[in-house]
């Protein structure tokens, strides 16, 4: 199963990719939002430090401006700690001990009194700094001069906090991804479940237990179901018409074949045996094809003509075999044999009664022609199947030629009276009803095993073809 052939896998892969991309973008967005939040908190902290820097100014005895009360944060006293302050007024520059012997290279701003600017500058050692700058007018006791104060923080702390937040967030994103993919998988299964029902209906149509998909399907596939139903109806009509024409053609050839048979008798009476043999051989070949088409035409009408009747079809092998044996025992080939039968009366197969008669009639006739003394017919229920076995005690078939027998018109006994179509017709009937026909040597004899779907026991169904002979 590949994404190219599986709609479910394609949806799952596309959904999983969408979930991962969405969560990746969400994680990136949350990291950016967290960084901005931390930066705002840092700016608030810098604003507080800036107020402390300005509030701590005083004058020395010589009138010079000094920082009498430096900010309380101890990082200002440690060299290159990542937290710095600087103040410029009247050509004099004061700075925190943390700056050591460097200055903050503030841009040339035209700040109004009390105005605050934010900057991102390079600091000591080339580090990236977040700078908050304010311009103030000092009070008269400090000389009433303009002062430019700035406080800076290393942005590495902000980035470290963002990285730590992202690392803490990843497991939760992973759990969320698993939960979302699991929910999407369940949603896909629920969403595609009606398609499984449609597939089951198609299987039922193929098995002969349903005739149409119907309209009880999701809106998205209703048009497809309607097209499939229309196609099924058109195929049924086409096959029925084609088989009807084949049947008409076969029936039309029956009369000329009867004429040829009469001509053969007249030729033999006239002493033209060689010519009579040639005409008889041609007529026999034509009759084989006519009989084959007649059987297939009837089988097609049974298979396609009435789908509801196909679904409800039931045949009782015991009844069918009993009726057939009543006829075979009156024939020269059947009268010389001992017939053994073991078929439960309540055993029912999902098979048209006429098709059942045709199939078992050919199997019994074939066994009667090749048996030495006895033929055994048994039937049993095997799960969802009915298995009917016909075994003779004849010479059997060479193992290498078993597959040849079921080929159209094949005959291993060219001197016999059969036309080589009986077993092939049985195979056609088995396949039409989703069953199988198997042949195997039974030592002695040949066993033909017909398997067809089983049906629940129902009212007795007697084939019309046997009602007059049973």
TrEMBL record:
Database matches in SUPFAM superfamilies: ATPase domain of HSP90 chaperone/DNA topoisomerase II/histidine kinase (SSF55874)
PANTHER family found in the cross-reference section: SENSOR HISTIDINE KINASE TRCS, SENSOR HISTIDINE KINASE YKOH
SMART domains given in the database record: HATPase_c
A Gene Ontology term for the protein's cellular component: plasma membrane
Localization, UniProt: Membrane
Reaction(s) this enzyme catalyzes, per UniProt: ATP + protein L-histidine = ADP + protein N-phospho-L-histidine
Domain Histidine kinase residues, every copy: 248-456
Keyword Transferase found: yes
Classification via PROSITE patterns: HIS_KIN (PS50109)
One Gene Ontology molecular-function label: protein histidine kinase activity
EC top class, as a word: transferase
Keywords, sorted A to Z: Kinase, Membrane, Phosphoprotein, Transferase, Transmembrane, Transmembrane helix
Any Pfam family: HATPase_c
Record bears the keyword Cytoplasm: no
EC number per UniProt: 2.7.13.3
Name of the protein in its database record: histidine kinase
GO biological process, one term: phosphorelay signal transduction system
């Amino acid at each position: 199963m590949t994404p190219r052939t599986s709609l479910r896998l394609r949806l799952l892969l596309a959904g999983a990719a969408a979930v991962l991309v969405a969560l990746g973008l969400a994680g990136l967005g949350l990291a950016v939002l967290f960084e901005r939040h931390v930066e705002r908190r840092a700016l608030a902290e810098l604003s507080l430090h800036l107020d402390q820097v300005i509030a701590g100014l005083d004058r020395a005895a010589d009138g010079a401006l000094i920082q009498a009360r430096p900010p309380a944060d101890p990082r200002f006293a440690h060299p290159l700690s990542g937290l710095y302050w600087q103040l410029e007024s009247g050509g004099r520059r004061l700075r925190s001990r943390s700056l050591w012997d460097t200055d903050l290279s503030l841009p040339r701003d035209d700040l109004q009194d009390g105005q605050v600017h934010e900057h991102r500058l390079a600091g000591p050692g080339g580090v990236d700094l977040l700078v908050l700058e304010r311009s103030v007018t000092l009070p008269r006791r400090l000389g009433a001069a303009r002062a430019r104060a700035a406080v800076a923080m290393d942005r590495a702390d902000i980035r470290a906090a963002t990285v730590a937040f992202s690392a803490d967030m990843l497991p939760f994103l992973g759990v969320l991804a698993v939960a979302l993919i699991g929910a999407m998988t369940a949603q896909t299964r629920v969403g595609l479940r009606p398609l499984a029902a449609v597939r089951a209906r198609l299987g039922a149509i193929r098995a002969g237990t349903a005739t149409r998909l119907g309209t009880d399907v999701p809106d998205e596939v209703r048009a497809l179901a309607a097209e499939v139903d229309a196609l099924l109806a058109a195929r049924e009509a086409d096959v029925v018409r084609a088989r009807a024409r084949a049947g008409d053609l076969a029936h039309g050839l029956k009369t000329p074949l009867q004429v040829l048979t009469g001509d053969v008798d007249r030729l033999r009476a006239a002493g033209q045996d060689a010519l009579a043999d040639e005409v008889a051989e041609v007529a026999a070949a034509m009759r084989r094809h006519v009989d084959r088409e007649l059987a297939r035409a009837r089988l097609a009408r049974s298979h396609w003509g009435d789908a509801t009747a196909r679904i409800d079809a039931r045949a009782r092998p015991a009844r069918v075999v009993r009726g057939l044996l009543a006829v075979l025992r009156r024939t020269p080939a059947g009268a010389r044999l001992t017939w053994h039968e073991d078929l439960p009366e309540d055993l029912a197969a999902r098979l048209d009664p006429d098709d059942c008669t045709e199939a078992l009639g050919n199997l019994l006739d074939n066994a009667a022609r090749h048996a030495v003394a006895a033929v055994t017919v048994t039937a049993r229920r095997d799960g969802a199947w009915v298995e009917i076995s016909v075994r003779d005690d004849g010479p059997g078939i060479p193992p290498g030629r078993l597959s040849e027998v079921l080929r159209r018109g094949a005959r291993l006994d060219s001197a016999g009276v059969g036309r080589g179509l009986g077993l092939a017709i049985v195979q056609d009937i088995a396949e039409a009803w989703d069953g199988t026909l198997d042949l195997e040597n039974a030592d002695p004899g040949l066993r033909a095993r017909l398997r067809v779907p089983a049906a629940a026991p129902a009212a007795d169904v007697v084939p019309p073809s046997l009602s007059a002979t049973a």
